[in-house]
Amino acid sequence: MHKKIGVAYIPVLHKGYIDFLESLIQESVEKLYLVGDEILEAHEELDYINRKDRLRAVPVETMKASLEATTNFDIEILTPTTVVSAETIVTPREDIGEVIVQTYFTDKVIEYRNVFVRRDKHTIGEESHPEAAEIISMDSFSKEIWDDVLAEAEKSADWYRRVGAALVKDGKVVYVTHNEHMPEEQLPNIEGDARALFKKGVHINYVTAAHAEVAAIGAAAREGIATEGAELFVTDFPCPYCARLIAKAGIAKVYFLKGYAVLEGDVFLKEANVEVIKVSLT
Ligand SMILES: [Zn+2]
After folding, report:
1. Which residue of 9, 67, 203, 240 could cross-link 263, Cys pair, CB 3.0 to 4.6 Å?
2. pLDDT for res 166
3. Measured between alpha carbons, how far is residue 109 from residues 16, 19, 79 in Å?
4. How remote is the CA of residue 238 from the centroid of ligand 1, in Å?
């Protein structure tokens, strides 16, 4: 019986999987099971992988032959009836690995390894600290605008997050807005807030609020005020929807106080030449 074996679904040999295999070699793991098509077909929750990957994945037999030619692993294709004798299973932390573990290896010790060079369910809500071109302190800036923005944020009925924003054009405040639930400002207090059921950054599509940035840019659109070259002061770093809107609206600068970026919100602001400046409250 092997003490430790590797089990992996390897549709393509990218850096993440090569690092995974190398970590096995370093631990003198000799046996590797490749997840076969029968397993993908046997689990409804893996159907999306089955459909998506059938078009582009290297067939498991080809992957087996290719790895046998380039490594010393003793490789077998894992099927729903394979009997695996090992104490510990090392597997990539991804949807498929978790389904397999919960179905076939409930009596084993599991070691998950990260192989991701792309998104998965676990990393989708990951927060990144937005890269700011510069960090300036509140004192060196128009304190009056921030006072307005912070007071506006207080008006939000969203107990999950109160956000204030000001659209500034040619040095003048055009709009000061806050995040507001629709169709009712008090919606979260009546129906409960759908977003509050999830971790920060996850299921952002369940938002029922018009974000402060949307409210400000929407008001400008309604009144025919060009947003090109305008500046946006916002308490929290924009969510990905708002970041796209800001980029498309031609906003030149975003000043923010706190928060995080998800889904590369900070990256595409930068690529759209929106200057991102973090303002320190102290
Ligand atoms: Zn937003």
Report:
1. 240
2. 95
3. 22, 21, 20
4. 5
